[in-house]
Amino acid sequence: MLRLDAKAPQPSFGTFGLRGIANVDLTPQLALRVGLCMANYLGPGKTVVVGRDPRTSSAMLSMAVSSGLLSGGCNVKDVGLVTTPALSFAVKTLKADGGVMITASHNPPEWNGIKLWNCDGSGFSRSQDRVIEDMLRRGEFRRVDWSRIGRFERVEGITEMYVEGILSRVDVDAIRRRGYRVVLDCGGGSACYSSPKLLRELGCDLKTINCRPDGFFKQRLPEPRPENLSRLMETVKSIGA
């Protein structure tokens, strides 16, 4: 049994998971504890898919969460940089028992977050989040014997599988016949890898903006406010998209 300082303030889960400023509120130590809690919640021998966005702190937090999961006896399938919907898809496709996504969505670049997922690809409910919160608050975590530490595996190609999954569920020929002209602003986020590929497969005449992953969001801030989308709006008008 590992016991950590239960008196230390613990960030609480909100509507969009656990969020805070990286390395201040949301530290690697806390991320490791969340991974341990997830492992204790699911039980040893279970498999968890871990994905992340391109924020500068996401790799750090992803590795910390994975370490906690492994220490608690869970196997980890690391799918790398993916969108949140692709993480949900991966959990179901890989027949995993749960998932963890490291992302803070539209928050500023210094923020990050941890979102937990069920085996069916749905996010943890509020009651499930409260169970994890209670584990964190008590500060007691069960680690497994060295011989039962989980296995770590990197899984490639999830984004491609996700795009193919979408294409298999829509009328591709009908969309291609329309010949849509589209301006896509990925905002430097995880969609840089999946959305352009999807739209090109659908036959769109595509113009991309901010489609390089950027953990500092130097291209534009992630919050979809008019002032952050001015280039997108201007381009849509100028090319008649």
Radius of gyration: 19 Å
Strand content is 15-25%
Q: Numbering strands along the chain, what is their spatial order in the largest sheet?
A: 2-3-7-6-4-5-9
Structural class: alpha/beta
Structure description:
By secondary structure, this protein is α/β, with parallel strands linked by helices. It has 2 domains: 2-155, Alpha-D-Glucose-1,6-Bisphosphate, subunit A, domain 3 (Alpha-D-Glucose-1,6-Bisphosphate, Chain A, domain 3, 3-Layer(aba) Sandwich), CATH 3.40.120; 170-239, 3-Layer(aba) Sandwich (Alpha-D-Glucose-1,6-Bisphosphate, Chain A, domain 3), CATH 3.40.120. Helices cover 37% and strands 21% of the residues. It is built from 8 helices and 11 strands. The chain has helices spanning 28-42, 58-71, 84-93, 126-138, 158-167, 172-178, 191-201, 230-239; strands spanning 2-3, 13-14, 17-21, 47-52, 75-81, 98-102, 111-118, 140-141, 152-154, 181-185, 205-209. The protein has a 7-stranded mixed β-sheet with strand order 2-3-7-6-4-5-9, sandwiched between helices. The chain has a two-stranded antiparallel ribbon with strand order 1-8. Strands 10-11 form a two-stranded parallel sheet. A hairpin with a 2-residue loop joins strand 2 and strand 3 (17-21).
Compact description:
By secondary structure, the chain is an alpha/beta fold.
